[in-house]
Give the backbone structure.
Amino acid sequence: MTEVRAPAAEGNLTCGVKQWPAMPLGEVAPIIRRPVKLDRLAKYREIGARSFGRGLFEKPQFDGAEATWEKPVLVAKGDLVFSNIKAWEGAISWATEAHDGCIASHRYITCVPRVDLALPEFLARYLLSRNGLAAVGQASRGSADRNRTLSLAALATIPVPVPPLEYQQRIVRHLEQLTEKTRQLEAHLDATERDAERLIRGYLFGTQDDSPGKRRLSELVSQRPPDVAVDGTAQYRFAGVYSFGRGVFASAVKMGSEFAYERLSTVRAGDFIYPKLMAWEGALGVVPPECDGMVVSPEFPVFTVNTQEVLPEVLDIYFRTPDVWPALAEVSGGTNARRRRLQPATFLNYEMPVPSMDRQLKIRAIYQHTQALLARHTAIRQANAALLPATLERVFAEPQ
């Protein structure tokens, strides 16, 4: 497992927005809307814009007869694209060849940059910088953040820098190279973590000739009853469990008067817990040290692990494995797929492979090494995610 670092920013491409002429966006990239009349017999590709500068994405193809909204607009390569309800939080991008001919709902705004003045990639990057996004925010009207709509008239008046096209091309190339480096780093981290998961699960499940025997969970864990009588005047820090094998986390702090449960359960580091309602989609896990002493509702069975028979890390690895979840879904009762519950008695009757304690100790050592690796990766991912926004600020910084 190799050590990796976030890529470094390169070059000195400070734009100096005060050094170049500024023009209203409406003059540089006029708003052009291309209404589309949907044909019920035709198929359409629809795009949307992610917030926080994460670009455009294509939605599943649909038939015109399935459309539930009116007045869609056509998107063409080179368009500057805004979500009029999320532009203030960075739902701004440009259309590439991959998006040419797609449609977007009437809530999207398309601007077409003048080819003699500006590149769409340059304009989008500027509008995603601190100064640009502040201007977009001011042009988005509404009394609450979740209810702000970008005004077409105000959008057209936003001043944007217009350096020579050659300079814009240099900036765009630099930012594209940096974006690709950050993407490659994320892919490398993902691949390293998948390799670590395969390694550790290989030790747990064994090979066809070396598969460990199965044992009922009733031999490995024991359920504890709720132990906290709720006081309406007291505060309680809750733990939760993410679905899809993402583990136990610190959740909300609530007053006893905010919920109807009369009793709660204290969880300790090393306990095993799950919500009855969501266990079937991988919401199971071992309580980490940072959640020690928190509480969960009676909808979360709490189990003490018999560490003489199985290590908590082995349980955590096993129940975070996606291949295990379908079997849990089968034994979770309920007629509605989204309302299936895994009852404690059923869980305790479930059988899982349990390696010898010698192998479990090896698994724990690998698991601990993997957790340290993930912690380092988290720091690298945070630095990697901050690199492009920091570069945008440097590129578009105003001289002091």
User: Anything to note?
Assistant: Confidence is low (pLDDT under 50) at residues 1-6. The radius of gyration is 27 Å.
